[in-house]
Amino acid sequence: MPHILRIDKDPNVGQQDHQDWTQSRGGLTGNRIEHIPDTLTGGSGTAAKAGTSIPSPFARLYLFDTAFRMAKNNPNPRETSLYHVLVSQCLDLLELLFQGGPRNADITYRVWSKGERLEAMRAKPAAPGSGVRHPHAILGKALELDLQGDLGRLQQITMIYYKGALLGGTSPLTLVFTSPNWEQERQNRFIEPPKSTNGRTLFRNEYVPLHERDIAFVTYLARIYREQNGLLSGGFREFLYKIFEDNTSPLRTEADKTLGSFDAITVGGETNATLQVVPGLVLYGVREADVLEDIERESDFVMQPSVDFYAQEAYPNGAPTKVRRPLALASRMEVAGKYVKNTDWNPRTEVLPVHLNDLSRDGLLADRYLPGVDNVRYPFVSTDDFLEDFLVRMPYKINNERFQTGMRDNADCHFLLPVRKEYFNFFTPADLERYLTIQIDANLVTASLEVPVKGNRRITFRKSYDLRDPGTIVDFRADLGFFPFYRVTRSDLQHLNQYTVMLADGSGVEYGFKPTGVQFYQFPGLIRKAPLQVPTPEPRSLKTSLAPASYYYKVPQAFDLVEVNLSYGGDTYRGLMLPQFRVIDQSYKAYTFAIDFGTSNTHVAFLENDGVSGNAEPQPLTVANDNEMQMVLLNKPYNGPEAQTTYQRYALKSGFGSFDEMEPLIRREFVPTVIAGDSRAGSPFAFPLRTTVYEKKGIQDGGDYLFSKLNLGFNIDLEQSVSADVNRYVTNLKWLFENQPKDALNRPRVRAFFETLLLMIRNKVILNEGDVAKTKVVWLAPSSMRRGTRNGLVEEWQKAFDRVFGASGQFVYEPISESVAPYFYLMKKGVLPTSDAVNIDIGGGTSDIMLFVQNERRYLNTSFRFAANDIWGGGLNEQGYPSYRKDNGFIQNYLLYKQRNPVPYRSEDGTLESFLQKDEMTAEDVVSLLFKQDAHFRFTQSMKDFRPALRMVLYLHYASIIYHLTQLVEANGLQLPRFLTFTGRGSQYLNLLGSVADITELTQLLFQAYSNQTAPGGFRIVFTDKPKETTANGAVLYQQQQDVNPAQTVRPEPVTYWGDVRRTDGGPQSDFIYNITSAEEARLKPDFHESVIENVRLFLEKTLKNRTIAAFLADFDIQRPEQYYDFLVGNDPASRHNVLWDSYLLGRLAIERDPDARLSETFFFLPLKHALYELSKHIQQ
After folding, report:
1. pLDDT tens by residue, 708-736
2. Distance set, CA 867 to CA 595, 599, 637, 842, 1165 (Å)
3. Which of 216, 495, 504, 821 is positioned for an S-S bond with 806, CB 3.0–4.6 A?
4. What are the start-end ranges of the H helices in 982-1119?
5. Model confidence band, residue 1133 (pLDDT cutoffs 50, 70, 90)
6. Is the separation of the CB atoms in 911 and 926 below 8 Å?
7. How many CB atoms lie within 10 A of CB 1115?
8. Cα–Cα distance for residue pair 152/216, rounded to 1 Å
């Protein structure tokens, strides 16, 4: 049978007999052409390359037109043909453009202009002499011929690129067409295929009918068909007619939408023209607002945040992004619910890093595209947004009483919070406490964070950290302390929310800690990525192999969280600290505080002004319980059996884990957690505190140096360091302006000391329901203090008070006299009766005498710089200033005693060694330590048993004050007092003179030796239990009376007996006038100075050569006191070459250094100031 070669399969054409090769006689006649088999039917797998052999540059456009013509009558085929696949891919591209609109950065455009390109081709000249047209000209002519007919309206073709790969272009026949090379190009470039809004992968060899597509897209095509029908052509218009007009099952559309409801797509570039197919036929995209609104309204994964800081997100230019409520999506989460449009969440959907721009840097929520679908820009958050990739482990348990840890049931934890700060753009710390769970199981740490979404459901973000993986965790050897630890909520008191945060860094250099890596945030500022402006600190102490570096961050306002950033192995490690500050929203109590700023020690007392506690007694400033902790550490307090006191809870090294280097650093450079000396608190720090600062060497005036370079020297009596250090202690602050007048650091030192006291007062007030506006602070000063010195101190008080309290609070800058204050406390205690009495307040640098003349209602006071430091100090140097010598007889005697009577070594011995070796420490500092730790050192015993004659110095000191008191009384025509009371810490040396009865007897003997008057009957000497506290307590009571009834306030009269010999012949005494006569005027009166020396000589003669007194002293193993007269005066009383004259000349230097200074104290004690130091050395020898 012959084989007939034909392309048709017309069954009506019969078989014909043929021999060999013969030609068909009839050809394709009739309807035989319709029976030619279509090889594209059923060939969906070849859609990409279909039609590529058609001999036309625009064959692809005609192919898509044909596809719509072929598919129109069978929009829902049982068998997918290549035509249907081409139609589906064309619709995919239209849908991709529609859903992405002008916002999809993955889609770019390149315009081919018909007129410009053809003209350029035609203009190409032929090669010279060839006589043949240029090939481009020929091509241009061919294209011109092709661009007629159905393509006649085409003015340009816009090429469409997806992530740089050619995806397709515009077509006047079908609006768009796809490139046959798209799939190969995509694979070559490793481009993920785009997806629809319901997560379907686009441009696959499949047919997706319109009714299965997004209703908004279907609506868009319907509006194009109806509103721009005249611009449509060919098979595409016929296809839409069949769908929207001739369809037994009409497609659902959104009735209220028109083309005006959508946004025209623009092509970008300089012109940013609209994407036109032919003139007037513009392609549109869905309005972003519609997409966002639909998702926010319909999605089941919309977060339910409790705060809306995220809504303040803005572009770099400040314009708001108007971000919607984000979705909460976890990778591969198995949670059912509507995702976007009518699409449910696919549990296979992954949230990849490519989906997450970094919100902590420049990333914006509004710029995010949802995972699992393409071109849907809608904000969402995922696990990596809220949980860190790595852990930061601290060398101790985190203080879960004061910081959130994420642990349930108050379990211990060593990790900083692995929560990213951006969480708080949506939720509060209370939410975190509720929704975060951290579980530690052997070597695995799991953080689970629930995020509430619509419908009262929660999405769980979870991360696990394998501690065996060295890249998962970094160990940060550091600790932080926060001072203070409260937060005031009142808007008018926000200036009280000022903090110093100490950080001690003992980490290795490989962990990349930098001081800039600690940042402080308020929750509202997180969305702006704006940490608080905190100056980057320099290290106070440098890091060594034995000690960490210390940094002090000055945070000027309230903050909500702290973020630590480390760099290790090229990765960034972050952790949060979320302090649970004590919130202060009520403040109504009124307090009065008094500061007794002493030479050696400072005391602070206070009392509530409640108007009902009339019998209440002032109390020392304490920080003794958990409710008023002034400084809180990141490490957890130790609660083991060894912690017997409150202080031990916070100070025992066990609480610091493997970072116990922090504990001594706190004592040296910061503020103690507990300040109270009672047995329950057990702190070594309690008021009265040493008047000292601890400063970094080499500082200069001109900045806020508190803590960063200067701090109150709490640790001075516990100091162990004997090696060279970058820090040192400075004492004797009260008299720096006089003793070191040219030192520019005097002011910052004094100011730092004042500021620390005021910060502790502020903390006490605020944490005890105090109203800072009703808080009054007073201070004390001796009347002998020079006006310039007092004014300098007032300036520093004012600066310190303004910095700490701002416009709130009341500071009384005019000091209360140290002579007056004790009276009020002694009266309250019933110590002072109605008879005439004298109170002598002996401090470290000054002594103040107050005479109460009851029958005349007179109150006289005098003050002079002759006090305890003149016993225990190192005398005067060549310029008349207190020296730093540590060789007085008391110290020499003790060191010899210690050598001959050794005791087991304790930490106190290390402190003593430190004091003795450090140049900045004085003899007064050494003796103060010896007294404070007398139980261990046995300093008192060394004087009584080993060298009792040293007490001669103490007797002379006391006797000289009684002698001067006697002359003062008689010069003012008064009687000797019946009662003599002693206050001031310096007066404690009187306990070494004997019992109260002994001192009373001695005083009566002295009165007999110095005066023709006899002591009144019933003469008594009264000591207070806490002499240093009496002055500050009295100042509190004085100020309260001043505030309530100023008319009854005692107004003392300043009196001064200048120290020359008392005239008994009625002749004139020195004519100096208190605070009027200048030092220069006094210098020019040699007779006066001769008389002062003579007066002191008479005092020594009446004391040391008095047989009755000598007998009394003999009972205390002080023999032959007259020998000390010889040492001090010499054999020739008229000679100027003796200890008294030398001492007097040195003492006068301090007064006469400023010739314009006004006299405010007696000259009587100047010959004794240095002489007692020399006498102590003489006795010891």
Report:
1. 999 999 999 998 876 667 889 999 999 99
2. 19, 10, 42, 6, 10
3. 495
4. 996-1010, 1027-1044, 1079-1083, 1086-1104, 1107-1114
5. confident
6. no
7. 9
8. 31
Preceding amide of 688 cis, omega within 30: yes
Reported as type and span, the H/E element at residue 224 is helix 215-227
User: Greater confidence, 2 or 754?
Assistant: 754
**Per-residue model confidence (pLDDT) at position 137:** 82
Facing residues of 848 across strands?
841, 863
Nearest to 183 by CA among 50, 91, 84, 53: 50
Minimum mean pLDDT range among 124-138, 254-268, 403-417, 481-495: 124-138
Cβ distance 1010 to 966 under 8 Å? yes
The crossing angle, in degrees rounded to 10, of helices 821-828 and 1027-1044 is 90
Burial of 408 (0-12, 13-18, 19+ CB in 10 A): exposed
The number of residues making up the chain comes to: 1181
Task: Report the distance separating Cα 276 and Cα 271, nearest Å.
Answer: 13
- Percentage, residues of the chain above pLDDT 90: 68
Instruction: Give 330 or 31, the one with higher predicted confidence.
Output: 330
Residues 728, 734: Cα–Cα separation, whole Å: 18
Task: Record the tokens describing residue 122, joined without a space.
Answer: 């035609």
Q: What is the SS3 assignment for 1157-1176?
A: CECCCCCCCHHHHHHHHHHH
Cα–Cα distance for residue pair 119/138, rounded to 1 Å: 12
Residue 341 has pLDDT above 90, yes or no: no
Task: Give the closest residue to 1002 by CA, choosing from 986, 990, 1016.
Answer: 990
Looking up tokens 């009495």, which residue turns up? Answer: 837
Q: Is the pTM of this model over 0.90?
A: no
Q: Which pair of tokens denotes residue 667? A: 């004592």
> What b-and-e string marks burial along 603-640, b requiring 16 or more CB atoms within 10 Å of the CB?
bbbbbbbeeeeeeeebebbbbbeeebbbbbbbbbbbee
The mean per-residue pLDDT over the stretch 89-97 comes to: 95
Q: How many CB atoms lie within 10 A of CB 203?
A: 23
- Contacts within 8 Å (CB) and 24+ apart, 197-200: 197/99, 197/340, 197/341, 197/343, 197/373, 197/374, 197/375, 197/376, 198/340, 198/341, 198/342, 198/343, 198/373, 199/339, 199/343, 199/346, 199/349, 199/372, 199/373
Residue type, 478: A
Phi-psi region of 641 (alpha: psi -120 to 50; beta: other; left: phi over 0): alpha
Stretch 293-308: mean pLDDT, rounded? 94
d(CA 1043, CA 505): 49
pLDDT for position 44: 52
Give the span between the Cα atoms of 440 and 393, in whole angstroms. 13
The domain ranges of the chain are 1-37, 44-285, 290-474, 477-584
Q: Are strands 175-178 and 165-171 parallel, antiparallel or unpaired?
A: antiparallel
CB atoms closer than 10 angstroms to residue 581: 19
> How far is C-alpha 819 from the geometric centre of its chain's CA atoms?
44
C-beta atoms surrounding 940 within 10 Å: 15
State which H helix or E strand residue 234 sits in: helix 234-244
* Amino acid at residue number 94: L
Which residues make beta-bridge pairs with 320? 314
Look at residue 762 in the predicted model and tell me its pLDDT.
96
Identity of the amino acid at 840:
I
Name the token pair of 119. Answer: 């003209």
> Is there a contact between 853 and 836 (Cβ–Cβ < 8 Å)?
yes
What angle (nearest 5°) sits at the alpha carbon of residue 79, between those of residues 52 and 343?
Answer: 95
Distance (Å, whole) CA 717 – CA 709? 20
Residue 1024: predicted pLDDT:
84
CATH of domain 477-584: 2.60.40
